[in-house]
Every structure is written in C-alpha cells, then in structure tokens.
Amino acid sequence: MARKIQAIRGMNDILPDQSSVWLYLEKTVADVVKSYGYQQIRFPIVENTDLFKRGVGETTDIVEKEMYTFNDRNGESLTLRPEGTASCVRAADQAGLLFNQTQRLWYMGPMFRYERPQKGRYRQFHQIGVESFGMGTADIDAELIILSARLWQKLGLLGQVELQLNTIGLASEREAYKAALVDYLTQFKDQLDEDSQRRLGTNPLRILDSKDEATQSVLKEAPSLEDFIGEESQSHFERLQTILKANGISYVINRRLVRGLDYYGKTVFEWVTSHLGAQATVCAGGRYDGLVEQLGGKPTPAVGFAMGIERLVLLLETLDLIPQSAKFSADVFVVSIGDDAEVASFVLAEKLREVSPNLVILRHCGGGSFKNQMKKADKSEARFTLILGQDEIDQGICQVKDMSTGEQQSHPLHDVVAYLNSKL
RNA sequence: GUGGGCGUAGCUCAGUUGGCAGAGCUCCGGAUUGUGAUUCCGGCGGUCGUGGGUUCAAGCCCCAUCGUCCACCCCA
C-alpha cells in the first residue's frame, strides 16, 4: 500500500456527523442576518499581501508571523486571508458599493493563520462576519449587537455567553493614552513580566490584559484609558448603552478590552464563554471608521463583527444544544430482492421523491442478502422500510414495515406513495 | 516560537518486574427458504506513529523525529 498523506496540521476535515451541525448553524445565521436586511458578499480566499499589511496592521502578530504568504508565478506576493474584514472592504469598495450609500453585508468562509493549534483554534478556521458601512452613529453598533444576541437566542446560547463592551476612543485619543501608558510602565519595566516588557515596544495596550500578578499590581496605578476618551466617543458609547438597555441586552463594561487588530476605534465588544477552555471569545467586533480610507477608499464609517464557527460548533456540542431536527437521518429505506424488484423499487423511490421532496429516501445499493439489507435499514434509523420482492411485483403490491413497532402491512403499489406521505 | 500530556485493529482502549499482540464496538458470514435493534457461534482486521540504540529477548527502557491534544503567546 502506498503511504498515506495526512491533512495539514491545524486544518481539519469536517466529517459527515459534524457537517450537519455546521449546516444547522449556517442556516440559522443566514436566516437571522437576512431578517435584519443583510446581504451576503463573497470574495476570494487569496488577496494581495499588502491588503492585509495595510488593513490588519503591519505590527500585529497576524501580519508579522501568522500569515500564509507565498509568491505567485509572476512574483507577486499573495496571502491566504487571515480574516475577512479587509477583503470585505476591498471587494465592496472596488465594486463602488461604499460610495454615498449604506451597506449591510455578511460573509462566511475559511481563514488561515499559522499558529499552534489548540482547543478552538486552528490554522484553517471558519468565520461568519457581519459588516455595515456608511453609518457613523451608535444605532448601527447597537443593531449589530442586538442581531448577535438574537442569534444566540435562536441557538439556545443566550445566558451561556457574556457580552463585554468597551470604547477605545479615537485613534488620536488612543495614541495619547498609549504614550502615557508607556511613560508610566517604563518606570517599572523591571517589575513587568517578560511578555509585557516586549509588548511595551510593540503593543502596549495588550499589557492591560496580562495574566501576570506583578504586572497587574503595577497596572493598578497606571493611567486609565477612560480618562483619555473624548466627548464624542463618550456620548457615542452612552447612546449605544441606552439602546442596548432598552432592548434588554445585558453586558459588562470591560475597560481592559482592547482588540488585537489595528483598525478598531470607539466601540469594541466581545461575546465570551467559560465553556471552551482558553479560547473564551466566540464572537468579537467593533467600529473601524478609518479602515476604508486606509485602504484607499473615501472616508467611510463602518462597524462589524466576526464569529468563529468552530468555537460555536464546539459550544453547541458541549452544551448539548443540537436540535434533533438538525441531525441527519433517513425517513424511508427501500430494499429489494431480485432483478425485477430492483428496477421497480427505483421507480417507486422516484415517485415518492417527486411527491415528498423533503423526505430522505435511502434506496439500498450494493447488493447483499435480504437480511443484510434489513440491517442497513435498521442502521439508517428510517421510520419505514419498503420491501419489494418477486412476490410483491407479481401481486402489484409493496410491503411497508414500520421499524419502530415492527408492524408490516402490504399496500397496492399505486397507493404506497400516498400512504407514506400521510404518515410522514 | 515555548512548555507539558498522549500515539497499540476502522473506532474506544487494556497490555503485569522486558518473555508468543488482547478486549469491546464496527464490519462480514451462520443459527429453517424473504425480515432489522436483543441473544449465541464463527470470521476479517496490527510493520504497537517512524528511525536508531540497549538487551538472549522491546508495545514496555534510552535517544531522535513526526503526529496529536492542552496550555503560553496571540486570536474567532
């Protein structure tokens, strides 16, 4: 036997028993976003490397060490998308969808980051993103959060996920705060943990979530981001909270919440859970008013969020929230004995599919003894098994066996379809 | 990139101080001719992740390597 080739590390196959959960989740999301007037957009998995360098931020970990980047045959540097927002902006702007108008868009698909895999984190992972453009007021921030809450409600996750909210102000306010924070922390540099010392030069805001105790005690006296937030950002944040409260959305304000990607400003939020180990965030987003312009478009306000499908699937499984209707099973199993019956069973199965297109009708293929076929019928968990042999063909009938009761009765061939249709 | 756990049949896993490679499930066949889930009998299925080393003898001990899981970092 030839040596087997395995899937790439961190890139998983979604096997049949899992794919039904994915379909259920995707369908639920598609229905919810549609009900809020969002339309799907699809864009390529590969983009010019510069799109992500400029969009995500040159000094972020994603760009510095996590991208799958390679040269095209003509020498151009291409990258497998590590996230969706930059591509979404590029696609929408390229098509002129962002000019003097508002857009409500969503997308879904694989993203790629070169990281060590662990629970809920993979090198190829899947996100569903929801983005809005052309609206700078807090109402649209609220709409997106309310939409996500409705999705949790539909999935049975409300109460299992917690909404964390923060405002990180305007870029200029954040820069001023960063400078103050770095000034302060530099005095205590030797008391900070190793990672935080490094982040002082790269991503100082991240030090705020350090898990190191010594670092946290240094942070107690540090300047607070809140004090640097200007009037505009503050009232935007308050308006958002007013709308959320009126809609019964509960949340906690987490002043330490800063997003990893450079493009965020004003509102940031995360939905977190305690059921998934270290990967607590199942959905995260915020406002990114500067991104469109940064990518060469006209200044356009925007807000959006992305959720991790793997994490949501894991969460649904962990909490046993997959409805029975989402699971795959057959309704009718068709077995036959003999050549004539085989042909007739095809015709019967097709007639049934014609009349009841939503039923799952599994017609046995591949030969095997009658006993064997009945075993397959049992495994399929079909409610009814149709049995056709030479005797039945001769008499123009079909045996219909109710697999749960074991009861079996014969029906004229021309009545079987109507009978099953009434029973299922 | 760093740290720790685990790699034995398709799946879940036993395997004693180093002494003939095992179970359950699945799959296939049989227990009266054309009837499934329970039961009984039989069968298929393995380079013990891979490569070295120690030993009369290695699934077990040592080294390396690959894979996987969890955590750090970072993030959905």
Strand content: 15-25%
Ranges with pLDDT <50 over ≥5 residues? none
How many DSSP-defined strands? 16
Give a quick account of the main beta sheet: strands, pairing sense, barrel closure. 8 strands, mixed
CATH topology assignment of the largest domain: BirA Bifunctional Protein, domain 2
- Provide the helix percentage: 25-40%
Radius of gyration: 28 Å
Strand arrangement in the largest pleated sheet: 1-5-6-11-10-9-7-8
What is the domain total for the residues? 2
Shape: elongated
Mean pLDDT: 92
CATH superfamily of the largest domain: Bira Bifunctional Protein, Domain 2
In whole angstroms, how far apart are the ends? 47 Å
Per CATH, the architecture of the largest domain is: 2-Layer Sandwich
Specify the CATH class of the largest domain: Alpha Beta
- The total of helices stands at 15
Structural class: alpha+beta
Please name the defining characteristics of this protein.
21% strand, five-stranded mixed beta sheet, alpha+beta, 2 domains, eight-stranded mixed beta sheet, 15 helices, single chain, Rossmann fold, RNA-binding, 16 strands, BirA Bifunctional Protein, domain 2, 424 residues, elongated, 40% helix
Describe this structure in words.
It is a single chain. The protein has 424 residues and is α+β, with helices and mostly antiparallel strands. The chain has 2 domains: 16-169 and 229-318, 2-Layer Sandwich (BirA Bifunctional Protein, domain 2), CATH 3.30.930; 329-423, Rossmann fold (3-Layer(aba) Sandwich), CATH 3.40.50.800. 40% of the residues lie in helices and 21% in strands. The protein has helices spanning 16-35, 49-56, 61-65, 85-94, 138-155, 171-187, 194-202, 213-219, 231-246, 291-294, 309-318, 339-355, 370-379, 390-395, 413-423, and strands at residues 39-40, 46-48, 68-71, 77-80, 103-112, 124-133, 162-167, 252-253, 265-272, 281-287, 302-308, 332-336, 361-363, 384-388, 397-402, 408-412. Strand 3 and strand 4 (77-80) form a beta hairpin. Helix 1 packs antiparallel against helix 5, helix 5 packs parallel to helix 9 (231-246) and helix 12 (339-355) crosses helix 15 (413-423). It is elongated. It binds one RNA strand of 76 nucleotides through helix 3, strand 6, strand 10, strand 11 and helix 11.
